[in-house]
Design goal:
By secondary structure, the chain is mainly α. The chain is 50% helix and 6% strand. It has 18 helices and six strands. β5 and β6 form a beta hairpin. α3 (85-94) runs parallel beside α18 (383-403) and α9 (216-228) crosses α18. The longest helix is centred in the middle third of the chain and has 26 residues, at 157-182. The protein is globular. The model has no long low-confidence stretch (mean pLDDT 94). The chain binds carboxymethyl coenzyme *A. Residues 235, 266-268, 270, 294, 302-309, 359, 361, 364-366 line the site of carboxymethyl coenzyme *A.
Length: 431
């Protein structure tokens, strides 16, 4: 990036501070306020970071107005159609598309780490069977730091690499184990002779009592879902991972923090909430009732799978997901799926409604993904864990980028304090 020659000038209370403006390779210019407090004695205030860039990154770019998502420059629709998940993982982690030999080596490194420490099986048994699989996932991924001591030294690039591969390889195994545990079935060990998506499906749906052949259509759909969720620049869970890691915490603990953040219904939990909402709507004639509720300021209900902090246009992932929903259901011989019909009609009505048009609320990635996962046989409680499996590579890539940046500092936001000013302690008998 070229050194900036532009500056912004902030004048207040007789002071003037010149702030450098940095020009990114894409996206709006960024006013660098890092010296503002030192030079002007004031903080900036931006809850929710609506106008604040929290880091410099080369991994993913989103143009929210155009509805464009690029990983290392490549558009998501091209990656979804032409590439596959592990190749996208390589791209996110290392910056460029791999050669055939590099891809083969990467795939074999991931494949060779899919098993988890056998002692982890006992660890699972401490959870209640009815625990949400996300609760189990947060706990077990965090516990990886107790099992893989040899890859927790973040100052060692080799250990960072091993930890990254371990997480991409083992989080699917752990998510599948969380599912198996929740339904009272034995854990299914990973298989290294089938691809990443097929292996995940097998670990979720096979049982030791019979042979299980992964349906290639299902594997392709699973791979597409993984690919579409792989990274999304500085979203809440990724920023959580970056903030947690900025203190020097070990990578497994940091990814567990990201999983915890992802769980919320405004973020990764929206896929579960969206399918539950579509089922509750049930039939197209009830859509107006739900649209009215979403618009009612006194009703906390929101149309799940709609709206996005960055996209003020179609979420490009939602476009691919909608097409995939049609393809997958068709290939699986599921015609006239009532939930898909409700979703399409809801989308049509919302996109013509003044409220949604004015606020630029469009379907996001979670709007159609649940329909595909449901058709594949996953319960709604597994939707967010599947998002976590897919996003692990994004978190890991952003974590690696941050740790290897010599300018890395502990993240430490300031505040606009509005509490009491200093006051003296009053003894209890005098209160
Ligand atoms: N239904 C109804 N109204 C909405 C919705 C919605 N889904 N989303 C936003 N609005 C309204 C909101 O009430 C606000 O209105 P007003 O300006 O009158 O107060 C306006 O649109 C702007 O919304 P906001 O909450 O200020 O926007 P935000 O950027 O803080 O929130 C969001 C973004 C994704 C949290 C929000 O759109 C939402 O809650 N959507 C539903 C949950 C969802 O689908 N989340 C998945 C996001 S994509 C995947 C991921 O990131 O994990």
């Amino acid at each position: 990036m070229a050194e900036s020659t532009k500056t912004a000038t902030l004048s207040f209370e007789g002071k003037t501070v010149d702030l450098p403006i940095r020009t990114p390779t894409a996206g709006p210019d960024v006013v660098d306020i890092s010296k503002l407090y030192a030079q002007g004695g004031v903080f900036t205030h931006d809850p929710g970071y609506t106008s604040t860039s929290s880091c410099e990154s080369k991994i993913t770019f989103i143009d929210g107005d155009k509805g464009e998502l690029l990983h290392r420059g490549y558009p998501i629709d091209q990656l979804a159609q032409k590439s596959h998940y592990l190749e996208v993982c390589y791209l996110l982690l290392y910056g460029d598309l791999p050669t055939a030999a590099e891809l083969e080596d990467f795939e074999s490194r991931v494949t060779n780490h899919t098993m988890v420490h056998e002692q982890m099986h006992n660890f699972f048994r401490g959870f209640r069977r009815d625990a949400h699989p996300m609760a189990t996932l947060v706990g077990v991924v965090g516990a990886m730091s107790a099992f893989y001591h040899d890859s927790t030294d973040i100052s060692d690039p080799w250990q960072r690499e091993v930890a990254s591969i371990r997480m991409i390889a083992k989080v699917p195994t752990i998510a599948a184990m969380a599912y198996k545990y929740s339904i009272g079935q034995p854990f299914v060990y990973p298989r290294n002779d089938i691809d990443y998506a097929a292996n995940f499906l097998r670990m979720c749906f096979a049982v030791p009592a019979e042979d299980y052949e992964v349906d290639p259509i299902m594997a392709r759909a699973m791979d597409r879902i993984f690919t579409l969720h792989a990274d999304h620049e500085q979203n809440a869970s990724t920023s959580t991972v970056r903030l947690a890691s900025s203190s020097g915490a070990n990578p497994f603990a940091c990814i567990a923090a990201g999983i915890a953040c992802l769980w919320g219904p405004a973020h990764g939990g929206a896929n579960q909430a969206c399918l539950e909402m579509l089922r509750e709507i049930g039939t197209p004639d009830r859509i107006p009732e739900f649209i009215a509720r979403a618009k009612d300021k006194d009703d906390p209900f929101r149309l799940m799978g709609f709206g996005h902090r960055v996209y003020k246009n179609f979420d490009p992932r939602a476009k691919v997901m909608k097409q995939s929903a049609d393809e997958v259901l068709d290939l699986m011989g599921i015609h006239d799926n009532p939930t898909l019909q409700v979703a399409k009609e809801l989308e049509r009505i919302a996109l013509e409604d003044e409220y949604f048009v004015d606020k630029k609320l469009y379907p996001n990635v979670d709007f159609y993904s649940g329909i595909i996962l449901d058709a594949m046989g996953f319960p709604t409680s597994m939707f967010t864990p599947i998002f976590a499996v897919s996003r692990t590579v994004g978190w890991v890539s952003q974590w690696k980028e941050m740790i290897s940046d010599p300018a890395m500092k502990i993240g430490r936001p300031r505040q606009l304090y509005t509490g009491h000013t200093r006051r003296d302690y009053v003894d209890v008998e005098n209160r």
